[in-house]
Amino acid sequence: MTTSSDPSAPEITPGTPAEITPETPPEIAPGVRELDHTADVGIVVTASAPAELFRRAALGMARLMREGAGSERSVERVVALSSDSLDLLLVRWLSELLYLDEVDGFVFEDAAFVELGEGGLRATVTGRIEPEIPDRQLKGVTYHGLRLEPAADGWQARVIFDI
Amino acid sequence: MKTSERPLKMRQLDEYRWLIPRQGKMRVDGLVYADRRLMENIRGDEAIRQVANVACLPGIVGRSIGMPDIHWGYGFAIGGVAAFDPDANGVVSPGGVGYDINCGVRLLRSDITAEELKPRINGLMSQIMRDVPAGVGAGYRGSGLTGGAVRDVLTKGAGWAVEQGYGTQDDLEHIESGGALEGADPGRVSHRAVKRGKAQVGTVGSGNHFIEVGVVTDVYDEAAAGILGLQPGTVTVFIHSGSRGLGHQVCTDYLDVMLKATRKYGIDLPDRQLACAPLTSPEAEDYFAAMYAAANYAFANRQMMSHRVREAFARIFGRPWEELGLRLVYDVAHNNAKWESHEVEGRARRLCVHRKGATRAFPPGHPDVPVAYRDIGQPVFIPGDMARYSYVLVGTAGAYSETFGSTCHGAGRRMSRRQAKKSVRGRNLKREFEELGIEVRASSFATVAEEIPEAYKDVADVVDVVDRAGIGRKVVRLKPLGVLKG
Question: In Å, what is the CA distance from B102 to each residue of B337, B358, B359, B384, B448?
Fold first, then answer.
């Protein structure tokens, strides 16, 4: 087989990364839209401040997993995480909530952040205990194409999940 | 400009091979197997760029390879193969294995004919649905393994399941690596991973995982089909699943470790999901020990399920499964990183081969191929979508010399899950499958909507490419009769 590189090879441009195009999908939760990804799923989240962004991303993930509301029993959990950047912290936050859903059936509903910065977060999260298995399982929260950055009217993040 | 941002040069080498010449920070060339039609589709997403990104990793040997079912993944593309040399600062990357460590497919054959099955398929699928928990975390509340049993699962793999009465010693001889990877260490698996996984062993999981009862419809190689026990008109069972929550958590845990390692060892990454560590580092040693443990969990998982499927057949047919000839053909994985010996530039080298959405496909005569199949090569299973067909192939010398003994693993998606769900609005999917003669069971029809046949490429196109390129050889084609989705 040939192994040499041909400088005259035609250039191709593989597809552009997932964006909210060509049609904008409806919001699956306030400020959260689902990305079109060939095999997996992703979300684009917008919010006025990082704390709201983290809260919305968590709601968006919960909505990807479960379409309907279930039991009424509300419970609280304390989540404390460390990190060295806000985007990695977002992955860690969502991974923690994914874990709580899978082992305890804890479905995120809201969060009150005591601390949130590049170094980590402390939050009291409230949710319900869902006896039924999720409609859709997420295997993990990936770092692929991860974005968290200031946007025109606040903050925007993009997260892709393995399904 | 980073490799990840610039347009990529690519050149068609022949009808089935496309070269991505070394450019930017790529250390080796990329090579993608596809015909012109498949390439039109592949070019539409990020997969080609991901093949180029993998070619940037330290110590990569030969080429960064993409199979014809390649599609946009995270870090590695799904359908990617890459080998790394420990003597050239080669690395291991959890993103090159995936969250579903050692996900794979096993195939049972039988002496039952499709005609004998037809009046019983409804009852059989319902029985399988009752006996094999399908969905996420199914069975995890109030049941599950004890700590000691978990340790045994993680070290003994399918052997643990056989010890518990799920199957036979003969099964173990027909599983990749005998159903257990040596070097697994439960001590390197987090409590969280154990907690996620301890009640899920023996369950299918959701997403694209399934149990499929099918029939052999086409035979391309009679001799090989005979050796595999796949006679035309007879019933088969595919089981596709992996390491469930345990494997997912191992991947999550070690991505964190590898992100730190990447900084520690000064590795420049085009995508953080490619986080990795040198093969000789303590971080890599820990990951291998944990990843192999998760792989063993996956082997045990599929072993338990196949035994429960056999028992479901026995109940419905009123005869022991042995009398029905429900023998395990083989069990092969398509998400792992393993130490293997391959010849590169005329020299045998011990390499770490990552296969993410790619199947090991060792050739005839290879010592790791079961003795019974040594003349024909290692069986390879390529499931298609829920309605059309699936294939059984065997490994070839071509795969061994070109792709580190690897071939494709499935059809590959062509439609996003959101698009798929949108396209089924207003349709009666259950009736559509009934009209096709396929009995479908699912814990959630939302999953079926995302997995509709048209969401996938035609697996025949994918298999034809690997067959004609010589990195796999077609043996038989199967048609689904009953499908259980998680």
Answer: 9, 11, 10, 19, 24
